[in-house]
Amino acid sequence: MSSDSSELPPAPHRPGRHAFPSPASPEVRRLPVRTTWTGPHRDLRLLRRAGRRQRRVATFAALGYFAVFLTLTVEFPSVMTRPAPGGLPTGLLLALVQLPVTWLAVILYEFTARRYVDPLARRVRRQSYGTVDGEWRR
């Protein structure tokens, strides 16, 4: 038995899974066009949107301050070396303020989660499981 692959007949061509069918082929299914934001998945969309908004706000609060600090350090070193009211250099004072700003971002994240995201998550959970007299059922 030989392991030479030139003796084998050529394999028939099969398009890969990534190949898109032509619009005229029967494989193409037309999806319904969504005209409203109502329906059974509306709460899931709202939950995803609230979670994204929450992450963006907290991330921009922490990273925005850090970016401002780095920009000041690079562009205006004379401002960063001036003494601040406490006697420390301004750059060191701004660096020390980064820790409270990060904690503020975490607190903001928790606040928005409890206020906006958690009620939506509870509503989605109730709709998916349903409740009967306060008891969960599937």
* Portion in strands: under 5%
Helix content: 55-70%
Query: How would you sum up the global shape?
Result: flat
Main sheet?
2 strands, antiparallel
Strand order of the largest sheet: 1-2
Which structural class best describes the helix and strand composition?
A: mainly alpha
H/I helix tally = 3
Please trace the helix and strand order, writing H or E for each element: HHHEE
- Catalogue the unreliable spans: none
In angstroms, what is the radius of gyration? Answer: 29 Å
Distance between the termini: 60 Å
According to DSSP, the number of beta strands is: 2
The overall pLDDT average reads 77
Verbal overview:
The protein has 138 residues and is mainly alpha-helical. The chain is built from 3 helices and 2 strands; from the N terminus they run αααββ. The protein has helices spanning 42-75, 77-81, 90-129, and strands at residues 131-132, 135-136. The chain has a two-stranded antiparallel sheet. A hairpin with a 2-residue loop joins strand 1 and strand 2 (135-136). It is flat and about 80 Å long. The mean pLDDT is 77.
